[in-house]
Amino acid sequence: MSEATHLTCEFSDNGLVQQLVGPHNENLTRLEQRLDVVLHNRGNTVTVEGSPEKAARAQTALKQLYKRLTEGLPVEMGDVDGVARLAQGTSQDNAADLSIRTRKRHIAARSPAQGTYLQVLQDFELVFALGPAGTGKTYMAVAKAVALKLAGTVDRIVLSRPAVEAGERLGFLPGDMREKVDPYLRPLYDALHDMLPGDYVAKLLLSGEIEVAPLAFMRGRTLANAFIILDEAQNTTPMQMKMALTRMGEGSHMVITGDLSQVDLPRGTKSGLEDALETLDKVKGIGRVAFTHRDVVRHDLVTRIVEAYDKRDAQLGKDHLGKNRE
């Protein structure tokens, strides 16, 4: 067993150090729990005690949190959890330096896979992001879309999901068209409102610079200079996925997100997301990122819930609910 080592982190601004440690040292306590170290604060100094490897990780996490404070950004418990995850990853330096700025949010990676995702979003015009809920697949894609719209890189944002629960037979639902589709698209609206002031979102929706629509509405269109996000893509058919992918026009970006363990298609229908991944496996210029339960950035309990379901499905070797995974 490695002997304990002691490292010292000295910071120049005492006021920021108080924000760093948090009320009643709650941020330090959280890092201790996450990284298996002992932390002590005195004045503008934080000392770290633990194995050499764990102490180095904690030192990295403290420096990243302090850097965030020097940039005028808050340090919340989610940020503490994020730097702890990054410190335990293999590419924390690159991940920590990547971020997306919108009018209301500064979105930084909170897991090594999110750091990879930010890099892939920067490097590729077409990206597939796979994994369970809570990993930030859609949220970070919306953030990237908003950032590029604000920068003038794209002219509009198109957000879409297959309304599979209604079989895309939207005419049978009550209300006008917006009332029909809103329940399926609410997560996308929520992400937009996290990034931009509500009145600005309303203005862009009214002008068509942001379009939120079910997948069926994309047929027959070519979307140039747009950022297109297809969410819940596991619920597309192969024909729908081909249609969506071929909507890309000049100057466009597209992100396809989905979770192949949550397919809601009729039994015997192959997921268009699975089909696309197989068909496009050798095609160059496509970015791919895979998230796991370890990348869930919601409540700790969500991570454990996702992990439990993954273990159950692995043991059964098939979807326990009998939904199509063939």
Explain what this protein looks like in three dimensions.
With 326 residues, this protein is an alpha/beta fold. The chain has two domains: 5-88, Ribosomal Protein S8, Chain: A, domain 1 (2-Layer Sandwich), CATH 3.30.1370; 101-316, Rossmann fold (3-Layer(aba) Sandwich). It contains twelve helices and eleven strands. The strands form three sheets. Strands 8-7-9-10-6-11 form a six-stranded parallel beta sheet. A three-stranded antiparallel beta sheet has the order 1-3-2, covered by helices on one side. Helix 6 runs parallel beside helix 7 (137-150) and helix 10 crosses helix 11. The longest helix is centred in the N-terminal third of the chain and has 19 residues, at 52-70. It is globular.
Helix share bin: 40-55%
Counted up, domains total 2
Helices and strands, in N-to-C order?
EHHEEHHHEEHEHEHHEEHEHEH
The CATH superfamily of the largest domain turns out to be: P-loop containing nucleotide triphosphate hydrolases
Strand content: 15-25%
What integer is the average pLDDT? 84
Structural class: alpha/beta
Q: Give the strand order, joined by hyphens, for the main sheet.
A: 8-7-9-10-6-11
CATH class value of the largest domain: Alpha Beta
What is the CATH-assigned architecture of the largest domain? Answer: 3-Layer(aba) Sandwich
Q: Total helix count?
A: 12
Cα-atom Rg, whole angstroms? 22 Å
Number of strands: 11
Structural shape:
globular
Q: What would the CATH topology of the largest domain be?
A: Rossmann fold
